[in-house]
Amino acid sequence: MRIPSTTRGRVIVALAMSAVVVFFLTTVPFHRNWFDLHVYYGAVDHWIDGRPIYDYLKPGTHYGFTYPPFAALCMLPMTLVGWHSALAISQLMNVAAAAVILYICLDATIRRESRHRWFAYAVAACMLALLEPVRDTVSFGQVNLLLLALVLADCWLLTAGRERFPALGRLAGLGIGLAAAIKLTPAIFICYLLVTRRWRAAGVATAVASGATLLAAWAAPTASRTYWTDAMWNTDRVGSLAYISNQSWQGMLARLTEPVAEPSRAVWAIGVLLLMWLWARRARQAVAAGNELAGFALTGAAACLVSPVTWVHHLVWLIPALAVLADSGLHAAPGDHRRRRLLTWALASYAILCSSMVWLWRWNDGGAPGFLGGNAYVWIALLLLLLLPLGRTSSEDGPYEDSGPSATMGACAHATASPSKSVPVSRQSEQSASPTQPGSKPARSGSGG
User: Fold this and answer.
1) What is the pLDDT of residues 276-323, one digit of tens each?
2) Secondary structure of residue 417 in the 3-state scheme
3) Which of 34, 205, 389, 415 is deepest in the core (most CB within 10 A)?
């Protein structure tokens, strides 16, 4: 892809791409009508009126609030504004979170590959917006992008942030702790810090998560008791494990066995143990190679696989892995066969995650093709966990010292690559849901998990 040679041309192309993306997002029939945000808003309003928050059900559904009480405390400010204001604030927060994610995942690679950084970021932002997990997160009114931004902030603090701002580096773990207190899934990143022997960061994350949970227990003891003893364990609040939007290891097993029988808990547990062993081994290898972002990316892929419920919008946790994969391809020499292979893999995975293809098997299993296609996102997560390249990437060739590992979204940086660039070597760092049919219910989503 050739980019315009003038600033005016690049501005026109960027505006045209943005217009196409906005048109698609406002007309695509997969919009979720802010379903989860309605649940959040209704639940905290119900709670502020003195009624139990975990008794709330969205009118006309059996879906209620299933996050920990600390999340409810964080959402209480919504009761101070009207619905439309809450919706606007939610979308602005998603935009801010997306900007943080793009910067942490892409900045060093874009510095290395492109003379036109703002244009590369514009392309990357358009590509990010088209991913189905991102589309679903935004149109459900979900919190996934915010949680991913918090977690990746710790990745930055462990790498570039620690070098540039040593005082801030000591806060590594803060974002993971907050994310884990808001929702249980990010707690796997505390395990990542432990597995990779980041004792201080693991301590900070554990202390923050525990402190936030205790704060919620002090502020809302009844809600806390209900959540930790009942609501957390009530799987009926989540929905059917076999639902096509559940792109986890357990979801795949459930689609194989239901409605004849429930999936075997023993098979699920054995699979989880094997996946966690593989994840721990590869995460340590990534850190040893100096690629912190790859370690975080592997952890995100593992979280998607081992969680009992991974709705499509939860798959934003795969974004760092896509970035690492594409960056590895771009970093290879032009004549290296790995370059073509890795970039093809990155673009194919990205295209599938944009396609909503799993919904083709929403109403029937489709036999063998359905097993493959209906679990397409599971296969992507598994392949990323198994084969994601772990060698050092952008920080080796970046224009500033110890920028930390980074990546790009496939053709983004490639399309804006400079024909000639200086690449001074930096010193190494310390270590190396769903499109609903007419009249059907919206996909079960993060308001319940």
Assistant:
1) 999 999 999 999 999 999 999 999 999 999 999 999 999 999 999 999
2) strand
3) 205
